[in-house]
Amino acid sequence: MTMIAYPTPLMRVTSILEIARSKIESVPLSVPQLLARIAVANVFWRSGQTKLANWDTTVQLFQDEYHVPILQPDVAATLGASFELGCSTLLVLGLFTRLATLPLLGMVCVIQLFVYPQNWPDHLLWTALLVFIFLRGPGAFSLDHLAGRLLKPHIKA
Length: 157
Hints:
By secondary structure, the chain is mainly alpha-helical. The chain contains 7 helices and no strands.
């Protein structure tokens, strides 16, 4: 007489978890790369738009509240708005992506050290997203990836 082994509840749960893990791991890395680019770009884009909405108030904030070292308030405001809007656009497009993360990482450092040190949880999140993008690149859903594919046949080793 042969015994039929029926799966135990633990075996069924383990099997379901293994299937779920396999499905999760099949998601291409390019998906979280795109989401990270959009998420962090949104933060800086909105900040840049706010600066442009009332330029006099922006310069006044840089003079009275932000106290960015070395730079004059109007220069700091111009650089801040330019980097926020320009680098955000590059991140969303996935164009010069790694390069675009560097000024934003610099801004996060300045904000953390000199402007709003109490907002370190937000700054840590922005830094994590920017470092992820810098280290792993923009992913397949980017103009950088497209340019690489188009230029690859023309580059000789």
